[in-house]
Amino acid sequence: MEYPVNDIQRQELSASDESFGDIRKVLLKYLAYWKWFIISFAVLIISGGLYVATLTPQYKISASILVKDNKKGDGFSMLEELDLFYKTNAVENEIEILKSYTLMEEVVDDLNLQVQYSVKEGWMESKESGFRKLVSFFVPWQTKEVYGAFPVKIEIVNPTHELFSRPYTLRFMGDKIIFDEKTYPRNTLITESFGSILLISTAANDSLPIWWDSETSLIVNFIPKASLIESLHNSLQVTLTKNTSVINLSIHSPTPQLGKDILNQLIIAYNKAAITDKNNMAGIALNFIEERLEYVGEDLRNAEQNVEQYKVKQGITDISAESSMFLQNIQKYDSELSQVRIQLDVLQQIEQYILSNASSAAPATLGLSDPTLVSLIAALTEAEAERIKLLSTTQPASPKVRAIDDQINALKEKLIDNIRVLRRSLETTQRNLRADSRRVESVINTIPQKERELVDITRQKEIINQLYILLLSKREETAISYAATVADSRIVDAARSTPFPVLPNRKMILMLFGVVGLLLPVCMLWLIDCFDTTISTKEEIESLLKAPVVGEISVVEQADKILVFNKIKSREAEQIRTLRTNIEYMRVGGGIQVIMVTSGISNEGKSFLSANLGAAFAAMGKKTVVLGFDLRKSGLDKIFGIDSAEGLSNYLVGHVALEQIIHTIELSENLHVITCGHIAPNPQELLLGNMLSRLFDQLKEKYDCIVIDTSPIGLMSDAMILSRFADITLYVIRQNYTPKDRIRHINELYDAKHVNNIGVVVNGIKEKNWNGYSYGYSYNSYKHYARYNEKQ
Known about the structure:
The protein is of the alpha/beta class. The protein is built from 25 helices and 21 strands.
């Protein structure tokens, strides 16, 4: 059953066919240059392989640490109880500390990374591929960095700029060391124009690495510290594992052990800085307590001596139970009053610290239990510590430091308000305690004077004793916290290296080079097409030309041959016969007797086409004459082998008769030729004379076909004058030679009807153009035709 196809479906099918056809044309166009693609691809792949081989392999070294963070619940509660100065660490802040230039500078100094050692790769027992060894052979200056235990150590003491400007050589010679081609004893300070360096021998020659013998020069490079720190800082990657407080560190290094040492040393420096910071805070509090203990201890000794002296002087051994009760009450009030006074003193010290804008650590909050005050002081201490850390890596005017300053000012304002509230509360408590104490004292006044005086002295001693015990307790707690100080992190995975280099990505680089190798010919062909102003493809002709194409002639190696007789079975000869047939179909009225062949510019093959087209009509048995009307340039003489100097120019001036300039060709008795004759100084005047009409009248009586070879119609007006005698005009264009703007001239002639029955002949078609005429609709038939003739 057949289903009807509507118009929309037809349009879709047509559009699909056109799209497929366009893609096919583009592919065929580029496939014509398949050799270019193969050569370009091979050259780029080889270049990519050489480039990859010259790159230094980079290993990825990674490590991870767990940072203590209350928000993450990492299980440090027991240490937190011992650490009075424990505070929550924001993991993001720790990441910035790990990435700080200060820590990286410490790593560079600890590992002495400013001094880098390398050797020529050809000297090493390399495990690289044979291809890389081949590259090392052709690139002898290529070196490879080495790292490890060397029998010599170089330390930079006082460098100058020259030290970092070039590499130096180092090797052993007996008990001497040759550095920069100068001999020095072991363990010596070298002072030259490059500055001062310390050359330390760490072992004898028998401990040299297996790849370094005493005759081999070790290449030493000194790297400026600032650039080295910047390079390592840019290479270091610090990331946070999602939903955890685990920080991952990674770095790329040409030597795995070097990368491991850098990361491990960075973690050590980070933990060391954290412990130092916490110990500084605990040390400040411990010094404060020690100072207070010294003063309180002295007061306690004085109070005990006063009690003892009073009892001895007054002979008192005990007091009554009632006196004891009153004494206990008054001691209680006095103790509370003492604590209030201490708290007021501490508040006074904190307030003075805040108003003084000091940058040192905040005073301890001994005796103060207000949670708001304690939390604000802890936050202030943390903020000031963070500011000190930032100032070690950034400038005071940076946005981060300004933000911390704003936070500190806000905390201080809150502290001032909180202190004022606490002071008012403590002062109220103090007034109440004093009133209670005075009431009890009034009762005590009834006790005998000696007993009352003893109570007063004993009360002072007990107050000082309680304060002394409190300070001793706080000192022990602070000492325990100081001794139990641990880093805020622990190592989850120590630094480890990948077993194989991760950079360069050889497959990716080779793939990119291969893609470039395939795209390079495409770009070159596209650029050639963009800058090509000549006609090259059949599609250009069909899209630009209005006049019909009546013939296609392939490129001919010898354009001075008559192909119809000399190469009868050739493809080009059959193309000329096809052109002759197409001309026969262009008969108008009484038929075609005069054919004018012209072109837009010179060297497009109009003389060759005129000669062979005349021979083709003569081969049909038609009596044919070919006229060389290009009066400025003779082209038919060489093709037909005619040496006569007289021709059309002589006839048009009336010097010779027509029979004198007609030449018979040996190839065919039906083919005659009239050359242009002497080069005329005034061709247009000759063509405008009466002799031209008389010439064509005579020739039409004698010949069945007249072929006119004219000068280019785009350059001279000769062809326009002769066109009035022509029944058909053949306009010759040549592939990859005729400019595209000539098509516009042909269209103008076609639209204006300035010439009769115009048709276009494409000459010089090259077979290698897949998208051109050579593989168009006509060439395949010519090819099969040639094969058929060969078999016959």
